[in-house]
Amino acid sequence: MLPKFKKILYCTDFSESAVSAFKYTVYLAKSTGAEIHLLHVVESLSSDAKIALQGCSVDSASRHKMLKERVKFAEEILQKRQDDFWNNISPEHQALRSQIKSSLVIESYPVEAILKVSQNIGVDIIVMGTHERGILHTFLGSIAKSVLKRTTIPVLVVPVSKENLTTIY
Predict the structure, then answer these.
(1) What CATH architecture does domain 7-165 belong to?
(2) CA 80 remoteness from chain centre
(3) Domain boundaries in the chain?
(4) pLDDT for 36-50, tens place per residue?
(5) What would the pLDDT profile of 70-93 be if each residue is shown by its tens digit?
(6) Please, which residues have CB within 8 angstroms of residue 21's CB and are 6 or more apart in sequence?
(7) Could you give the CA distance from residue 44 to residue 12 in angstroms, rounded to a whole number?
């Protein structure tokens, strides 16, 4: 029996490869009728970064506000990228936007968040981009590699396409 895709988790880091990955996500959704769930993870600050932030901020309320603004800013970027993508796609594919069932921006560690959200939603496939970062990550980025090692859910890892080298949605 062939696998059926009913729910797709698209993970974006707003990189060039994420644009390519979203195109594959939309294609899979179109081909299968699957729901699309969007996820962007604002990476949690390291202990060193938190200490530095404490040194720069006057009080706890100011620090909390700065941290909340990181998530809000990411939500705005995700919305803008979605609007740009859908405004530039052919009219006959516009209806596919209705297959997006959730759009999550959370602060966490990316791998853990992707694994947790994929389990909570019950997705059938995870789609994410990757990019080169030196010899160790030539074929897969560290996030994609870690997700692949730790999940039993199929993962489609999409490299940046040549057409996206100059266009980012």
Answers:
(1) 3-Layer(aba) Sandwich (3.40)
(2) 14
(3) 7-165
(4) 999 999 988 766 666
(5) 899 999 999 999 999 999 999 999
(6) 10, 11, 12, 127, 128, 129, 156, 158
(7) 16
